[in-house]
Predict the structure.
Amino acid sequence: MCTTKNVNQRPFPLILASASPRRRMWMDALGVPFEVLIPDVDEVPLPNEEPKKMVERLACLKAEAVVRSNPNRWIIAADTVVAVDQKTLGKPSTVLDAINMLTLIQGRCHFVHTGLCLRRNNIIYAIVDTTEVFLRQMTSEQISWYVNTGEPMDKAGAYAIQGVASLFVEKIIGSFSTVMGFPVERFSELTHRLGLLNLWLGLP
């Protein structure tokens, strides 16, 4: 983590370095002024890379890709993976891939790791938040039905906890927003501590 003085200098709005509609939804809900720039980065995991280290690295990499052409602007970037049995599950590339992922995680618990990077020039704050999710046991027919809804195809671990998949969630331990890909509580804590949240919200 790098720190410096005067971290709460403007300009704003914040730049969200993400193509995720879920992250845009959270930013809209928070009322923080923002604009979207989609980073072009290689998201392939490194050999034997641990899930937590991977999401932190990729979140920072996304922020770095945007900050180059946006000096003096605050950038927020995130990355999310599902992990089970030391296996990292990203987004499914095919229907069969989605079915295999859901077959692996149903009827048991898994972990969702979301890395968050807040950056302005060379000032970098990176955190990782983890939530444990328990999915009910699913039949092969239920899995096929869910995959055919199309919902799993752009989601880490092949499911969206805020969507149809909520029908199969038994419980979670941790942050719901982290599973959705944007750990709101950690974002709020960090930006409040830095004095940025009040600036963006126009509060004294």
